[in-house]
Amino acid sequence: MPSVQTKPIQVKGLQKSYKQHQVLKGVDFEVEAGSIFALLGSNGAGKTTVVKILTTLLTPDGGTAAINGYDVASRPDHVRQSISLTGQFAAVDEILTGRENLVMIAKLRYLKNPRQIADEMLTRFGLTDAADRKVSTYSGGMRRRLDIALSLVGKPQVIFLDEPTTGLDPEARIEVWKIVKELADGGTTVFLTTQYLEEAEQLADRIAILHEGRIIASGTLSDLKKMFPSAKVEYVEKQPTLEEIFLNIVGKKEGM
Ligand SMILES: Nc1ncnc2c1ncn2[C@@H]1O[C@H](COP(=O)(O)OP(=O)(O)OP(=O)(O)O)[C@@H](O)[C@H]1O
Ligand SMILES: [Mg+2]
């Protein structure tokens, strides 16, 4: 059994190629329990590849990754029991209602009282009014909230969110941020990927930047600000600036 001090996510020298294309060339990082860790990188940097390896959906070519002390390659079942994944693209069933989606997942996880669990999640994620509508009628933000709610059924200790707010409008993005913060406050370890520097800035205890197959910078936001004022980060920063303007105009900056 892993000891209580074991960091929930430990990654060493991770490598992965797709045919000739080496996407990960030796990726190292660790994530502390109950913290929010953001993996930043531009399109194609390999963020989803890292998430897939850590969630046992893809086998690395080299290096090791352990979740709660369990190696992803040799103990995938143990890993899966303690994690959940909200993928880059929503995994909700469009034909079912929000409530039906939640009940289905609770049943798949053999939980008692699936309807009660569904009700609690609907309340927590502000989806009670829409609970009995088909997901096909939901907005992008509502789908994303439902998607995150689904991944929390069964109270996983470590959750993976792959670009949880890409494609959401600024208000929906802030709702997701609030949910993620609450999760970490409750002791859940959160690993998220993002292309938005402001997202990392708002949420993450630690940030790592994945570029050309390696973590080229990592640390707290203030660590990064000191050491990494390059053109790439500047590019990422531009979008949140516009976002801030938008938020000021629509007057929704509450508490962030
Ligand atoms: N199954 C695959 N077969 C071949 N190449 C792949 C495969 N999956 C990913 N790639 C390539 O690996 C690289 C990294 O992809 P990945 O999806 O991990 O990037 P990402 O950082 O998540 O990008 P995005 O921000 O667009 O989601 C890309 O160049 C991609 O084209
Ligand atoms: Mg991706």
From TrEMBL:
It is found in: Cell membrane. It holds the Pfam family ABC_tran. This is ABC-2 type transport system ATP-binding protein. Belongs to the ABC transporter superfamily. Signal peptide: none annotated. Keywords: ATP-binding, Cell membrane, Membrane, Nucleotide-binding, Translocase, Transport. PROSITE patterns: ABC_TRANSPORTER_1, ABC_TRANSPORTER_2. The keyword Translocase applies. Residues 9-237 form the ABC transporter domain. InterPro entries: AAA+_ATPase, ABC_transporter-like_ATP-bd, ABC_transporter-like_CS, ABC_transporter_ATP-binding, P-loop_NTPase.
